[in-house]
Amino acid sequence: MAGYADLWTRSIDDPESFWLDAADAITWDHAPDRALDEAGETWRWFPEGTLNVAANALDRHVDAGRGETIALAYDSAMTGTKKTYSYAQLRDRVADFAGALVGLGVEPGDRVLLYLPMTPEAVIAMLACARIGAVHSVVFGGFAATELSVRIQDAAPKVLVTASGGLEPGRVVEYLPMVQKAVEAVPGVVSHVIVRDREAVPGDASSLVIEGTEVHDWDDLVAASEPAAPVAVDSSHPLYVLYTSGTTGSPKGIIRDSGGYAVALAWAMRHIYDIGPGDTMFTASDVGWVVGHSFIVYGPLLAGATTVLYEGKPIGTPDAGAFWRIVAEYGVKTMFTAPTALRAIRRVDPDLEDLSPHDLSSLETLFLAGERLDPETWHWANDGLRVPIVDHWWQTETGWPICAIPRGVEHLPGKAGSTAVPMPGYAVTILDSKGREVSQPEKEGNIALRLPLPPGTLAGIWGSPERFRDSYLAAFPGYYATGDAGYIDRDGYVFVMGRTDDVINVAGHRLSTGSLEGVLTMHSAVAECAVIGVADELKGQRAAGFVTLKAHEQIDPETLERELVALVREHIGPVAAFRDVIVLDRLPKTRSGKILRKTMRQIADGEAYKIPATIEDPTVLDALADTLRARERANVS
Fold first, then answer.
1. Most buried among 89, 97, 246, 527, using CB within 10 Å?
2. Residue % of the chain over a pLDDT of 70
3. How many CB atoms within 10 Å of residue 490?
4. Under a CB-based contact definition with an 8 Å cutoff, are residues 255 and 241 in contact?
5. Could you give the C-alpha distances from 58 to 130, 161, 277, in angstroms and in order?
6. Do 516 and 507 meet the contact criterion of CB atoms below 8 Å apart?
């Protein structure tokens, strides 16, 4: 096998042959004769090719004699339920539910909205849509009714699939009242609602009455239906629409194609994650996010591997050893989670005492993405787990990694603070504010990707071609603007320092909040932190650091502030003018672990703000506001 550098160079210099070769990993109903159809700022991958993604994920493995291999292992820390599905069993469940959708009149191209907890039905429903060419749109279970209705309005789904509810530590989240409110807010759109009854949560199909919408019980509907066969669709046919936050407040429906996505994931599973038939992958995420789509559901199943679907948290269900139990119990080879999960574990169990009862000998690599991985946490995990830690970077829009260490190609060394090197098809470039390439190593700028983007990346924004261009292509003609800032070092490693709007300007000095956060986490008492730029009459902005402490840490706040200020002065310099340190019990985050820096800045500056739909716990924002008010009163006095 060629080394990383040769593969990447070939993908950039000769994308046609590179991706046609990669397409051989997929079973096509009609194989493509060419890889790329490009015209200016538009492109399609594998034109003329037809396939079915669900059949590639399930049927072909059964047809190859691997029907008894475990495809899906479900483990719920919330209910104690454990269940496995072989490839043959999962195929049959998917075919049955696909038949139920067909019986309701769902046709190729129709949208089906999924509003489900982390249970096998979520995976089954996604694959059932793919089996019949329907376009699924997964909305994180528990999203507010107003946000759910916005997505119904935009996607116009014929069918909505839900459950009686989800489970969080210490509470039950009932879905049906939110579904009723959301569907009624957009009358005449959703024709059918399918409800999966869940014993642990009150409510069932009979408790949901919506005028103009038929409500069905999942089990009853499937029992009255015939299994559906796979439907071949064009490579460019939308597989799903996944919503991501929009800068205008209106969510963007990212369109993912079928053929390009299948090829990209098949390549990534083998070459990045080093996963193939017989291997087990545990991705600690949610199917409501892109990580869940790509590396809980489609990626591992396309690879013929076993995927673990986990309903629980990294801590508290029951302890900080929850992830390590999963790894040991299921023989996990590759694990994928978010840095915020590691920081949560580190805060509660800094010495990894909850790791010791579990045998992690099967684990070969831990991948992290979703939030910048600070160097201190990288070292902590690397030293404690004694397996390679790969911090890699990608977005909802790209669908698979932009940068990583390709463990199935070459065991390149990792670098703390870096998301490693660009993956095939991604020409990562640093641009200045005027769109000029920055050739100087380690000079920060806007991270952009030269067009065309590789297979598997977004094919557009649902219902708004002009918004696709305005959001991603207009800022730097010929490039996709990632919205992230960072630099490339002399070895070609990419360092993503944060979103471009997270760069603060202190008296004319542009400072990366990621760099400042990296310094704050050097302190032995700090579990995690966030740095934001707050308004300052003299300097324009000044940096403020919000920190949480490790469990059982006892340190005087004034001492901590003095030591952190000294650390920043030592490692960044006096230009940072850093002097504000605020200790919090918890940082405000989304359910996927991203720290809500923009909202924190708005609160600190006294601006009006909207509580993000993706927030994990809104009360954390109230606590933050109270802390800042108390600090202001103390300063005045």
1. 97
2. 97
3. 7
4. yes
5. 11, 22, 12
6. no
Q: What is the pLDDT of residues 575-627, one digit of tens each?
A: 677 889 999 999 998 877 788 888 999 999 988 888 887 788 889 998 999 88
Strands 159-163 and 111-115: parallel
From CA 433, how far away is CA 204, in angstroms rounded?
Answer: 54
Bridge partners, residue 334, by sequence = 281, 365
Give the residue among 30, 29, 73 at the shortest CA–CA distance from 301: 73
Cα separation of the two ends of the chain: 69
**Spatial distance between the Cα atoms of 162 and 155, rounded to a whole number of angstroms:** 16
Q: What is the pLDDT of residues 77-135, one digit of tens each?
A: 999 999 999 999 999 999 999 999 999 999 999 999 999 999 999 999 999 999 999 99
* Residue 412 predicted with pLDDT over 60: yes
**Domain 507-636 indexed as CATH 3.30.300.30:** yes
According to DSSP, the residues that pair with 505 across neighbouring strands are 510
Lowest mean pLDDT among 133-142, 298-307, 338-347: 338-347
Contact partners, residue 465, CB within 8 Å, separation at least 6: none
Q: In 3D, which of 352, 378, 383 has the Cα closest to residue 367?
A: 378
Specify the pTM: 0.87
Q: Could you tell me if 224 and 102 are in contact, meaning their C-beta atoms sit under 8 angstroms apart?
A: no
From the CB of residue 199, how many other CB atoms can be counted at a distance below 10 Å? 8
Domain residue spans of the chain: 4-312+392-486, 507-636
| Eight-state DSSP code of residue 218 | H
Higher pLDDT, 91 or 535: 91
Q: Sort 525 into a burial class: Cβ within 10 Å, 0-12 / 13-18 / 19+.
A: middle
Kindly report the number of other CB atoms within 10 A of residue 342's CB atom. Answer: 26
CA dihedral 211, 212, 215, 221 (to 10 degrees): 160
The CATH classification number of 4-312+392-486 equals 3.40.50.12780
Task: Please state the length of the chain.
Answer: 637
Q: Are 265 and 299 in contact (CB under 8 A)?
A: yes
With a cut of 80, say whether residue 336 has pLDDT above it: yes
Amino acid present at 260: G
Task: Find tokens 């269900």 and name the residue.
Answer: 317
Closest CA to 96 of 216, 230, 228: 228
- pLDDT value for 340: 84
Q: Which two tokens stand for residue 6?
A: 């040769």
Phi, psi for 47 (deg, rounded to 5): -60, 150
